[in-house]
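Box S2. Input/output pair 1.
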Amino acid sequence: MKLNDTLEQAFNEQITLELAASSVYRQLAIELDLLDLTGMASWMRRQSAEEIEHAEKFIAHLDARDNQAQIGVIDKPEVKITSAVEAFEIALEHEREVSKSIRALRKLCDEEGDVDSRPLLDDFLTEQISEEDTVRTIIGRLRIVGNDGSGILRVDDELA
């Protein structure tokens, strides 16, 4: 069943947000590479690819519902970091933004009577809980090691 225009627009906004999140993760990977934290950079690249996969799932959902996917404007990520913990704090902020957006989309679907989108959105919400928890754990570990180079490198190796 085709989505109404309001829902189509909301799903397209989510697609754009997922692609913007991918762009932020990719820029964070570049920044971490500059700090010679190649394991963390690799982790960020994997997250970037995952965000693209999320966008693809939303695009496929619109296509399956006979709607038109449209990618909106994606701003250049303005990301400059001086530490690993800073990079992961930025990542957590973006994960929270994505979670908030998916919750709002889920609520809108309920308000518009679109029960068919629930499974997709519920799966994403469950995944977002895990994503936020993972990033919070990494931040916690980085805070424990503080400025200890060997500790930072150990976390870096674990994320490779």
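Box S3. Input/output pair 2.
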Amino acid sequence: MNTIFNQCDVTLGDRLISQSSATHPYRAMIETLLNYSPELLKCQFNAGLFYQDTEGAMDLHVILNGPNRGLTQRARFSANQKRLNSQEVATFCLMHAANREYRLHVFYVKKVTVAPAVHIGHSAALIKSNALYPLSRINLKTFSIPANSRICTQENLFLGTLPNYIVLGLANHEAFTGSSNLNPFNFIHCDLEYLVICQDGRQIPAKPFQPQFENNQCVREYYNLFSLSGRHLKDQPPLPQTTTLIVYASYNSILKIDSKRNILTDYY
């Protein structure tokens, strides 16, 4: 469901507290896959039409008894629909054969009004002290890597406060920009052979990641996926197509609201 939205902004009053970026689908997918168990994804997340794609068949768009079981399950919900509202991002979130046409359909969004008693209670509490909310601030950046490249170095990736952790992903650039024939969440390793972070001349980790995907020697890199990633990359063969590097960074922040409803943050 999150692939429908190209960008989601969160505001308090007139203050934007989220990153304004057209990469919401990738943020949602990274957080979903890394933060929740397979059992939860197969039950509760199905209510949001999350059906995980089948490994090795993510770019296949055969709907009827196709090898991509996730696509088959999602297609059942729109099997009898004639029209789904024209959107420019339809090529990103909808997969289908080249000779077929599908569109998105507007759905209902609930709006909640706070009860007067709750509003009065909040106002009384704010007179005594500020409201403090822990905030996981997310910053997501993308970089295009040209075809036939073997080395990618991103200097000064983060200025000022460093994130608690980062996650890197490589995706086909055509799928990233929107293609009805390609799955934008089919992350590829591109035969990556070297990856490391450098902070003020200090290398993290001390021993760089050097996976060998052809020999299935990548356990260390997979294990560290949940705690550490990097920003300097080297691919063994040249990249066959233009690739997009997706950098997901998470920060711990505090959001404050005072009695005058001013929004105070410890970042920008």
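Caption for Box S3: The longest helix spans residues 116-128. Residues 82-88, 228-232 have pLDDT under 50 and may be disordered.
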